[in-house]
Amino acid sequence: MSSAIVAGIALALAVFFVILIVRSLIVICPPNRVAVISGRKRVLSDGRTVGYRILKGGRTLRIPLIERVAWMDLNTIPLEVSVTNAYSRGAIPLNVQGIANVKVSSGEGLLENAAERFLHVDHLAIGKIAKETLEANLRGVLATMSPEEVNEDRLKFSQQLIDEADDDIKTLGLELDVLKIQNVTDDVNYLESVGRRLTAQVKRDARVAEADREAESEQAEASARRTAQVAQIEADKKIVEEQNALRVRTAELEAISRAREEEALVAGETAKAVASQELETERIELEKRRVEADVVVPARADLEARQLQAQAEAATIVEDGKAQVEVFKRLTDQYQAAGSDGHDVLVLNMLPDLIDKIVATVQNVSIDRVAVVDTGGGGGNGDGDGSRGGIPGLMSQLPASLVAMTEQIEAATGVDILASLRRRDAGDGGEG
């Protein structure tokens, strides 16, 4: 049991020592400081090789015995900038007092400059270097400006000073936060003389302006009185003119009133005549409408009905003609597709119409009864005289009558019915 306790204590001490070692090796950087860890070489972004690395915020581990940590503060350093007997443009010596706030820059490239120049340097020394640099730049800027410009446009003076000192400050690895000019004086009372001169000029301008305003006021008052008198005269004149115009207008209105009365009487008579004329015109118009309703409208309706009926009949005839043409066209196509058989079918189809046409030539002849008289020859006794009587004789004459009829049809129409029938029979026999 005692060995376990000893092992536990040893383990706890080992963990404690490990924590102490790690704590001593870890570097944690706050936002207002930078850690410069030197001891190993590294290449910067501009290609330079240095023996340190810089940590801005966050944490890192250092290698014991190889790397060492140094700190730089990024806090603001207030400075009082002042120059005496600094010659401005025009060889006028000036005394200028101002304030500035500088700090170690955390920008890339500038922080390396500050680390190389101010590592292990306190704020007082850094502030002294920055102050001397700003005062030197202040004298250079004063040489380019007149005392009036320095005193009157201090914002411009401060901006020019910032622009002039920017490169020098960045070379040191510093950053200029604020630069303000507080006071500008001179030992020869130049600015005071300028002030008195400007004050005298302002007072003179004020007295001149006051005299001008008084003169203008008197002129305005005289002009106002003259204008008032002229206005009064013009007003009196206007009143007289208006009174005369009123009398003239009154007379004109009386004459107009009398003329209007006479015009009203004439207009009344005229209106009566016009009303009578319009009444007669309306009566004539009503009579025209009655006649149109009784006679013209029915006649027009009947005409339109007849026109519509004629159009309907014409449309029927046209459509029937189109249908017949279509039927004939289709029959023709079918007959042409059938070849020689189509010709026979056409002839046979035409045969009833042809017979009707032939019979129509004797349509006025009416046959009431046909009597067949037997001559006594018998029904063919074989005596060789060829005579036949009665019914047999009539039947023997039918083929000749049919041949004669076909010849008449051929003479009348040019259609040989017997030849068509023979071709039909020949075609049927060939198929059999």
Question: Any overview of this molecule?
Answer:
This protein is of the alpha+beta class. Among the domains are: 2-72, no CATH class; 74-188, Tetrahydropterin Synthase, Chain A (2-Layer Sandwich); 339-363 and 388-432, no CATH class. The chain contains 9 helices and 6 strands, in the order H-E-E-E-E-E-H-H-H-H-E-H-H-H-H. The protein has helices spanning 2-25, 110-118, 123-142, 147-152, 154-171, 190-338, 340-360, 390-413, 417-431; strands at 26-43, 49-61, 68-73, 77-87, 93-104, 174-185. The chain has a 3-stranded antiparallel sheet. Strands 4-5-6 form a 3-stranded antiparallel sheet.
Concise summary:
66% of the residues lie in helices and 17% in strands. By secondary structure, the chain is an alpha+beta fold. The model is unreliable at 378-387 (pLDDT under 50).
Strand content: 15-25%
* CATH fourth-tier homologous superfamily of one domain: Band 7 domain
Estimate the mean pLDDT confidence. Answer: 76
Tell me the number of helical segments per DSSP (H or I, 4 or more residues long).
Answer: 9
Name some characteristics of this structure:
432 residues; alpha+beta; Tetrahydropterin Synthase, Chain A; three-stranded antiparallel β-sheet; 6 strands; 66% helix; flat
Topology diagram in text:
Elements: H1 2-25, E1 26-43, E2 49-61, E3 68-73, E4 77-87, E5 93-104, H2 110-118, H3 123-142, H4 147-152, H5 154-171, E6 174-185, H6 190-338, H7 340-360, H8 390-413, H9 417-431
